[in-house]
Design goal:
Elements: E1 3-7, E2 10-13, E3 16-19, E4 21-25, E5 28-33, E6 47-50, E7 55-58, E8 60-65, E9 70-71, E10 74-75, H1 80-89, E11 92-101, H2 107-118, E12 125-132, H3 137-150, E13 154-158, H4 169-182, E14 185-189, H5 193-205, H6 212-216, H7 220-236, E15 242-244, H8 250-261, E16 266-270, H9 272-276, H10 315-326, E17 331-332, H11 365-374, H12 380-394, E18 412-422, E19 442-452, E20 455-459, E21 462-463
Parallel strand pairs: 1-6, 2-7, 8-11, 11-12, 12-13, 13-14, 14-15, 15-16, 16-17
Antiparallel strand pairs: 1-4, 2-3, 4-5, 7-18, 9-10, 18-19, 19-20, 20-21
Bound molecules: dihydropyrimidine-2,4(1H,3H)-dione and zinc ion (2 copies).
One zinc ion (ZN) binds near residues 189, 245 and 246.
Length: about 475
């Protein structure tokens, strides 16, 4: 059994930054001790990694990815092989991807298809949520089965995308009641898709076809309204745990904050694109360039929505950073859903509603949220909490994942705060995309070394991992419930 010592670094957890050495035996962290504590064990170690001046953090846990998602007549361009390799480059050692069941399809077949796509392909460990796109008697039974037998304890529903993934309020209520019975979590894409479709048709009829209309036709009150409705339905369904995905707007966040204030089992995540990018700088660019940033929920205006009925004042981004600090937002994920510009985003030339929705980001979340630490928006502890520890706890993988502690998987990242990372297609970029949503961004700090279950995946700017190393993680229930 290989023995690795990581010494001289600062170990970061949600509760503090401590000078500690970390001993790894085989696939597991065997001990964490004060500097020098393992000096006698050092001789018997196969490797010693010197983390002087660096941070030692748990491997990142990205609980919202879409490898190979079928969408808008094409597929997300990362396979499990390319996407998990890029994740490793970004200091991520576990992903939870969304297995798909669409209306009219069988849940078990959808899940089997996801196991076929991922099995033997992944560089890092992986788990699944299950999208339920067709709520009926059978899929409700299947939800119970997946929770009890397949290690899938969270189900994503959509209030958007009528005719594709959409569930109406009655279907949502039934799925929530089922989840309440078996202890599962409901994840919600909270946007009022029926109203959005009307706005989209009206915009197209006016000849408004550029990418920026994607955001204009999804104003933040329609995210806030859907968030509120999901919260009400989850209450009626017996306070079932509800997790709002990819939150982009201050007015939606207020709904979550109010529910949490009332002691409800309501949680939310946001993504780096909503914390850092604005409509004006991205999909508002002239011509079709903006299509690179078409995702849903949309990137929002710097100040307030164009209809002037969104958040007033300091803008959505300030609200979201505040929400992260206040634990109104518990998790940062990526909603990694990459599409190439050529042939994929281009499907929407002349009609923004046909642009495949999604941004690739699995490689950059740890970097971009660390930049929030540098900018004074978050503490180091909260960086690790929102990107590693809470995602693992939220989705039943803790303490195996998400923490540097004896007995946990040896998923460890050595982070160098003294150097920089330049993101871009000719710089750091390993996702299977022909562009980067973060082109030219320079981040303070860098992923230095990445270990997954004791195996070194990244070191000295080289990828040393292999496909098939990653194992399927059967998850338990959310650990945030009493
Ligand atoms: N949002 C996206 O941007 N892409 C895939 C699905 C989703 O909800
Ligand atoms: Zn979604
Ligand atoms: Zn998604």
């Amino acid at each position: 059994m290989a023995k690795i010592l990581i010494k001289n670094g600062k170990v970061i957890s949600p509760t503090g930054v401590v000078d500690n050495d970390v001993l790894i035996e085989g696939e597991t962290i065997s001990a964490v001790g004060a500097p020098g504590w393992f000096v006698s064990a050092e001789q018997s170690c196969d490797r010693v990694i010197d983390a002087q001046g660096k941070y030692i953090i748990p491997g990142g846990v990205d609980v919202h990815t879409h490898m190979e998602l079928p969408f808008g007549g094409t597929f997300a361009s990362d396979t499990f092989e390319t996407g998990t390799r890029a994740a490793a480059w970004g200091g991520v050692t576990t992903i939870v991807d969304m297995a798909v069941q669409r209306y009219g399809e069988n849940v078990h077949e959808g899940l089997a298809e996801w196991h076929r796509k991922a099995g033997g392909e992944c560089a890092i460990d992986y788990a699944f949520h299950q999208i339920i796109g067709g709520v009926d008697d059978q899929s409700l039974k299947d939800m119970k089965y997946l929770t009890e037998h397949e290690g899938i304890s969270s189900f994503k529903l959509f209030m958007a995308y009528p005719g594709v993934f959409y569930s109406d309020d009655g279907q949502i209520l039934r799925a929530m009641q089922t989840a309440a019975e078996c202890g599962a979590m409901i994840m919600m894409h909270a946007e009022n898709g029926i109203a959005i479709d009307v706005l989209v048709q009206q915009a197209l009829a006016r000849g408004e076809t550029d990418p920026r209309y994607h955001s204009y036709t999804r104003p933040s009150p329609l995210e806030a309204e859907a968030t509120h409705r999901a919260i009400v339905l989850s209450h009626v369904a017996g306070n079932v745990p509800l997790y709002i995905v990819h939150m982009s707007a201050g007015d939606a966040l207020n709904e979550v904050a109010a529910a949490r204030h009332h002691g409800r089992n309501v949680f939310a995540e946001t993504c780096p694109q909503y914390l850092w990018l604005t409509l004006e700088e991205t999909l508002g660019q002239p011509g079709f360039e903006g299509s690179k940033w078409v995702c849903s929920t949309p990137i929002r205006s710097r100040d307030h929505d164009p209809h002037h009925i969104g958040q007033m004042g300091h803008g959505h981004q300030g609200d979201l950073w505040k929400g992260l600090r206040m634990n109104e937002l518990a998790v940062v994920s990526t909603d990694h859903c990459p599409f190439c510009f050529k042939d994929q985003k281009e499907l929407g030339l002349g009609d923004f509603s046909k642009i495949p929705n999604g941004i690739g980001g699995v490689e950059h979340r740890m970097e971009l949220i660390y930049q929030g630490v540098v900018a004074g928006e978050l503490s180091l502890e909260r960086w690790v909490e929102t990107c590693c520890t809470t995602p693992a706890r939220m989705f039943g993988m803790y303490p195996r994942k998400g923490i540097i502690a004896p007995g946990s998987d040896a998923d460890v990242v050595v982070w160098d705060p003294n150097t920089k990372t330049k993101i871009g297609i000719n710089d750091k970029h390993h996702m299977n995309m022909d562009h980067s949503a973060w082109e030219g961004w320079v981040i303070d700090g860098k992923v230095d070394t990445v270990l997954s279950r004791g195996s070194v995946l990244i070191e000295n700017d080289q990828y040393l991992g292999r496909k098939g190393h990653g194992q399927y993680i059967k998850r338990g229930l959310s650990q945030y419930l009493v």
